Amino acid sequence: MEKSSGVSVLRYTPTSELDYGTLSCWADNLVGTQSRPCLFQLVAAGKPFPVRNCTLANQTYTSVEVKCVPGYDGGLPQKFVLEVYHGDVDFLTSSQPLYNVSNPDEPIFALAGLEASVEAGVHVAVYAVNAKGRSQPVTLSEVTYRDAEKRTGKYNFKFYEFNFYI
């Protein structure tokens, strides 16, 4: 603890899980003792938890709204990312996303201009990111309807715009 010119400074470095929690401090001077302590909450920061309860709304052959509930932020500000994939859902972890978009506030996204053939469905992965890393993704399969007229055509995927709600 350092004291100089009426200012106190405590340098505190947690070294184990038990060192996190609430620190309390009280001031004392000629007028008296502070009646309520100052409280500082120390939280061990980590990667965010996955989003949950993801739902699809307003599905069409070329658009969909994806809405999820955020998980715990890991003690740090987080943003949300949606990635668009095509192909077999079992091989998405080894695939590169076709597109991605982020929302700094909440895991809600509106996708438009999507097209996929019967051979390759449209899938999305949603995850949270903070300064410590990213959560496990939540994958949603077949997020758009498949157009019956394209059953004999080759894979065709077009992207026109991403919108998200703020």
Automatic annotation (TrEMBL):
Membrane spanning residue stretches: none
Source organism, top-level taxon: Eukaryota
UniProt-recorded name of the protein: Uncharacterized protein
UniProt lineage: Eukaryota, Metazoa, Ecdysozoa, Arthropoda, Hexapoda
